[in-house]
């Protein structure tokens, strides 16, 4: 049996958002020290599936690393590294390009959303992204993948790739079937201006997202301007099912305060947004400002971040390279 091992990653494709924090980083920190191996990656090979200015990419890679560290990822307890420094990711990604079927890739909703009507203009890398993501996970024989809801389909594809590889090469049980771990009240934090879209670092307007590095005044302004319907908070969480913007703010509050969304609604039943939004802003500032101050401090010493990532890459290679060698051997190489 495979020992429990956690793998997840974040793209350095812009500043980190509250969605990345609540849906990913905060949960990665909570998973640390629970008796599982924890491996966290800055997935720069994924970032370049859409154009990244080289200087911005270098900076964003360090900023994602700083976000992990400032939030409590301990590089002694977890393996923390940058994907492109471990070439086995790209190598296994190629092998999986030869396992995954075109029909499977055609079903990936994230590609369709990102490509929109311009599929022909997208990079081949953006299309093959889920196959590289399968390599990221399976290269470590990871069994658990904490992600936001948007990544569920990609983890399911990872299972399909693992199963087909094991079957085609008669390598029963070689790759484990990883489980997506999608838990807590903030697995899909929505855009503050359009409650039908998820909050994302690559969204168009800065007002639609909270950045982890926003200052207190900016956070207060963005929540104040967040779109909501005019009705006050209801008596029960169920009554928010048709009110996505309102539900989103309640979910964010619940996740930030480590409580359930039901408990938040009970506490604020009947309150108006003029009361709830400032309370939410204060809570977000109290949680994010110590992290962004620490990110600032870390970003002043890029050589130290690079050193931590370099050591992490050494540890990642120690796990990944033997698994890649066995994979090549199974394939006949
Ligand atoms: P982004 O979509 O902001 O570019 P990534 O693709 O790098 O972020 O995703 C990194 C992790 O953060 C993934 O596990 C993803 O599911 C999670 N995540 C991203 N946005 C959100 C969100 N709005 N709500 C919850 N989780 C999110
Ligand atoms: Na994403």
Secondary-structure element order, N to C: EHEHHEHHHHEHEHHHHH
Global outline = globular
Largest sheet: 3 strands, parallel
- Helicity level, as a percent range? 40-55%
Q: What is the rounded Rg?
A: 20 Å
**DSSP strand count:** 5
How many helices? 13
Number of domains: 2
Function: Catalyzes the attachment of tryptophan to tRNA(Trp).
Pfam families: tRNA-synt_1b
Binding site for L-tryptophan: 136
Catalytic activity: tRNA(Trp) + L-tryptophan + ATP = L-tryptophyl-tRNA(Trp) + AMP + diphosphate + H(+)
Describe the structure.
With 333 residues, the chain is mainly alpha-helical. The chain has helices spanning 18-31, 44-47, 54-71, 88-97, 102-106, 109-115, 124-138, 152-168, 216-225, 244-256, 261-268, 273-299, 302-331; strands at 5-10, 37-42, 79-82, 144-146, 179-181. It folds into 2 domains: 5-181 and 302-331, Rossmann fold (3-Layer(aba) Sandwich), CATH 3.40.50.620; 206-297, Tyrosyl-Transfer RNA Synthetase (Orthogonal Bundle). The strands form 2 sheets. A 3-stranded parallel β-sheet has the order 1-2-3. The chain has a two-stranded parallel ribbon with strand order 4-5. Strand 1 (5-10), helix 1 (18-31) and strand 2 form a beta-alpha-beta unit. Helix 4 (88-97) crosses helix 7 (124-138) and helix 4 packs across helix 13. It is globular, with a radius of gyration of 20 Å.
